[in-house]
Amino acid sequence: MHLHLHLNFSMKPIAIISIAALSCLASSGMAQNTLGRAATPAEIAAWNIDVRPDFAGLPPGSGSVAQGLQVWEGKCARCHGSFGESVQFTNALAGGTTAQDLTTGRVAGLAWLNPQTPPLPATTLMKVATVSTLWDYIRRAMPYDQPKTLSVNEVYASLAYMLSLADVVPQDFVLTERNIAQVKLPNRLGMRTDHGLWRVDGTPDVQGTLCMNNCDTPSALKTLPARAKFQQGNVAEQMRSYGPLRGVDTPAQLK
């Protein structure tokens, strides 16, 4: 490629040098090859780890309930409790499901299906509809303080143990990539598609109005339990200071 440059000799020398350098890059074809490079297969494989509802992307492996117990006690129980019952950091993982739920595929204890006073707190195994979601999330995000450190077999084992807590699988069960599709969760038929998150033109689940000042406070709010409010410092300094929901000035509540 030939560039014809008409230079004004009143230009500063540095400008002339810069233009000359650009012309050399353009003429040699280097300009289009100096930024970035193609990702290697290993880099793509490390990033592309999602497991879909049809189990595409699921790696081969296995883990028994007994092996999962060992993984659980060593890496999971400190946050979730030995039986997935702890609510110290999150909602409980197991509980609230019945043998009837396993048969019907719908968890009757969910508040919107069977209103109760007070409603049962919804555990993870009461809500999740696809077992691939559990496998994928455990692999990506657990343990909370060391995500992605579990081996593939440890993911299978810890999930097998978690499923056993709700009697989804028997105590001698070995979870593998070959039988995971046969696992039937209690709420497997509970996934809704008639909402705004599923369709672009759908109606949002939540309706509201924009508000910046003097906003009405919602009548029903879910707040942190008292024992957890002060573990992360002053929440008011970490959340927005406008709108109907604002960070609680936690130190003030200690007075």
3D architecture notes:
The chain has 10 helices and 2 strands. The model is unreliable at 1-26 (pLDDT under 50). By secondary structure, it is an all-alpha fold. The protein has helices at residues 13-28, 41-47, 65-75, 77-80, 99-104, 124-127, 131-141, 152-165, 226-229, 250-253; strands at 62-64, 174-176. The radius of gyration is 27 Å and the shape is globular. A two-stranded antiparallel sheet has the order 1-2.
What distinguishing features does this structure have?
two-stranded antiparallel sheet; 255 residues; Cytochrome Bc1 Complex, Chain D, domain 2; 32% helix; globular; mainly alpha; 2% strand
Task: Describe what is shown at a glance.
The protein has 255 residues and is mainly alpha-helical. Helix content is 32%, strand content 2%.
User: What strand line-up does the widest sheet have?
Assistant: 1-2
* Percent in strands: under 5%
Radius of gyration: 27 Å
Overall geometry comes to globular
Query: Considering DSSP H and I runs of 4 or more, what fraction of the residues is helical?
Result: 25-40%
The topology string of helices and strands comes to HHEHHHHHHEHH
In CATH, the topology of the domain at 55-182 is named Cytochrome Bc1 Complex, Chain D, domain 2
Poorly predicted residue ranges: 1-26
Mean pLDDT: 79
The CA-CA distance between the termini, in Å, is 75 Å
Write the layout of secondary structure elements.
Blueprint: H1 13-28, H2 41-47, E1 62-64, H3 65-75, H4 77-80, H5 99-104, H6 124-127, H7 131-141, H8 152-165, E2 174-176, H9 226-229, H10 250-253
Antiparallel strand pairs: 1-2
Helix pairs in contact: 3-8, 7-8
